Amino acid sequence: MRKRNRLLTGLLTALALAAPTTAVAADEPAPLAKPAFLAPFECESQWTYSTYPGHGNVLDFVRSDGKTTPGSPVLASAAGTATRHNQPGGGGQYIRIDHGDGWITEYMHLATYEVPDGTQVEQGRLIGTVGSTGNVTGPHLHYEQELNGVHQDIELEGKVLTPYPGEYGEKFITSTNGCDGDPGEPEPPVQKDTALTYDGPATIANGSPAPLSATLKEKESGTPVADREVTLALGANQSCKARTTAEGKATCTIEKVAQPLTDSATVPLKATFAGDEAYKASEATAELKLQYVTGRAYGLSATVPVLVLPVVIAPTPDTGEVRTADAKTTAPPCTQNISALVLTADALCADVTTTTGPSTTTAKSMLTKVSLGLPGLPVVEATGVTATSKSTCEASTGATDLKLTIAGTPVTVPNVPNYSIDLGPTAKLVVNEQLKTPNGLTVNALHLTALGGADVVVASSTSGAHNCA
């Protein structure tokens, strides 16, 4: 009897120990619930989607209902916590929504963020707009669904979209997101203040291209505003347009600048963003310096205080001061002959020629023959006289060409600037005189000075370049 009781007790104990095992198996966690994801677009909009080899288990969407893809609203596929991210070399500006239970959706290449970082969003809440930030070939929405970090076959509007097409236009989806009109439907975007800054070149030149640029940002946060059109207007008659990059920079080029030269040698620049549903308009202004050139050339000038009859010859012929930002030639009529008590000159000419793209000025003065016979000095004669001065923003150069004789004896003149010849204790002759100016160079073929105030300049040319930096 005791033995039989012991056996019964052991059996009951074994059954009691086995009972909890059955209860634990019955309490195993059920599979994680999948949110009822809706298409991440406004109610009744139609989109086509595709992927490509190596892209992964993700889809790219573009509009197929006749409306433009860039700037289209992007809505939350399901409720969750939205965080903002930026990957300039990949996904660009994108939002990641944590739906709980390990489910995540991602919305990449956004033009704008429309919710603050960390916002709790309902299904259908506006979170951004479609753009082309990051590494893309055109505007579209890159969309992903993940479970515990693993990409899942994308299911939207109650339908699994696999197998994915390799081209747009093969499969389509119509969004019902926000169509029920509940509090989670998209809210009208609140326009944000923007700040536009011109950051292109400070100097431009007629006849040359001008690469203009400006940067658009959110005024309060400083976040770049991507995929927006900015107009850059140069003066009153030239402009170009560009869309902002992921960094907010818009760059376009005026292919050939053509602006008038004012007294201040500046040109107004205005950059304008017209604004849209998401952002307020803004503009930036600047005064750009316009490169210009100057020049002057004349054949001869003289002041000789001869006791009997002083000789004073104003610069002849004289182009006068030339100041321009355009291509032109200034050339007064040549003077056939100058004859005074102490000097003679034949066939004197002068001209200043300017070009653009880049800005260049060349001043040249010429005469066929000159003879200087100042009292008490040997006679100086020169033939085939030419003095040239040329200036650009990079450099100024000068040269003199002539044949020289003094007291009937030919003089060999070295090809160097400022070659001085002593004519005695009271006079000096400088050949190929080159005098630097603040913005250029003056070249005098001959410059004779003597005691008593005598001063004769033969073939003078001056050039200069301005607003070079």
UniProtKB/TrEMBL annotation:
<protein>
    <submittedName>
        <fullName>M23 family metallopeptidase</fullName>
        <ecNumber>3.4.-.-</ecNumber>
    </submittedName>
</protein>
<dbReference type="GO" id="GO:0016787">
    <property type="term" value="F:hydrolase activity"/>
</dbReference>
<feature type="region of interest" description="Disordered">
    <location>
        <begin position="175"/>
        <end position="194"/>
    </location>
</feature>
<feature type="region of interest" description="Disordered">
    <location>
        <begin position="70"/>
        <end position="92"/>
    </location>
</feature>
<dbReference type="InterPro" id="IPR050570">
    <property type="entry name" value="Cell_wall_metabolism_enzyme"/>
</dbReference>
<keyword id="KW-0732">Signal</keyword>
<feature type="compositionally biased region" description="Basic and acidic residues">
    <location>
        <begin position="216"/>
        <end position="225"/>
    </location>
</feature>
<dbReference type="InterPro" id="IPR013783">
    <property type="entry name" value="Ig-like_fold"/>
</dbReference>
<feature type="domain" description="M23ase beta-sheet core">
    <location>
        <begin position="67"/>
        <end position="153"/>
    </location>
</feature>
<keyword id="KW-0378">Hydrolase</keyword>
<dbReference type="Pfam" id="PF01551">
    <property type="entry name" value="Peptidase_M23"/>
</dbReference>
<dbReference type="InterPro" id="IPR011055">
    <property type="entry name" value="Dup_hybrid_motif"/>
</dbReference>
<feature type="region of interest" description="Disordered">
    <location>
        <begin position="206"/>
        <end position="225"/>
    </location>
</feature>
<dbReference type="InterPro" id="IPR016047">
    <property type="entry name" value="M23ase_b-sheet_dom"/>
</dbReference>
<feature type="signal peptide">
    <location>
        <begin position="1"/>
        <end position="25"/>
    </location>
</feature>
